[in-house]
């Protein structure tokens, strides 16, 4: 049942056909060293890689040396990938094109934009909201990102604050010196896009709440709070992520936790999402699967891609997501193509993918010397659950198929399992 609840939590795309989108046991504790010899001659690939970025390929702005070794194995003498690879990151405060350029410079080979999946990339599929007036939260190229995703009419938190300056009152230096006239010409907001962690959390939390509690008219007040509230689409549920610091940093999942807690405290009800994207959402893995298939077709690899290997550093997002997607594939295989999701149907096109294996590396969030992610810490009765509220705590989903030191060892492991020349 826990798996079913988690599958239902990822949101859905009512009426969407995926063809139209086009767009072994885990080892705990010490990370083992592995070395493999070649087993057989190389053939057309029947497997592909889903690679996390932060904590797997890079730490902040520094490339992890093992990533360079891994791509010496993955790229042939012509600078082309030997197998289909998609980079699946929960980052979102950057343009897809810019992320591809950044990876190209770090890894030493050409990464195409359509090989990069940002946390919000699947929002392209939520076309029923693309023509609505949406408040967008995050940082970086917010408006450009929203428009790339298909949203035609967006308002940033800063624009809303300028229109209604009396709403943002925490920072004394930013409070208006005089009381401005209330505006009645500001078009109503029809939904909220949460693309990534903002810079001024207090401002974003306050104004998003104002929009939700006023039914999109933040300059007014309502006698009762509307419920269900305006549609909310969110991406990147990571509570923590790994940069240059020795300890993990707050991610967008922490911001979402704050928003959800405030909403429930004020209304007594749960904040609801029309869609939650980014790992561990099944929707993100479906999107990645489709890009793997298209990449293989472009390269002329006629053999269907049967296996996916997801390499990541975060047990909650990377391992949980890959395992949840593997469970989903088994359910589709057993029960048929259509699955009920939250708010509608996933209409899954026929898929050749049979499995998705999770490989956990020790270069990021996961610390093999730290407490087990599924075990209580000293003095506590329950294990801390770093996942999102709408995903059930399921210890089995947080157990990686394999644990290795780094991405280079992960690639060697997969090549060995597939009988490929290293």
From TrEMBL:
GO process annotations (BP): glycerophospholipid biosynthetic process
GO cellular component: mitochondrion
One Pfam short name: Hydrolase_6
Keywords, ordered alphabetically: Signal
Signal peptide boundaries: none
Classification via SUPFAM superfamilies: HAD-like
Domain of life: Eukaryota
Family the entry assigns: Belongs to the HAD-like hydrolase superfamily.
NCBIfam families named among the record's database cross-references: CECR5, HAD-SF-IIA
Protein known as: Haloacid dehalogenase-like hydrolase domain-containing 5
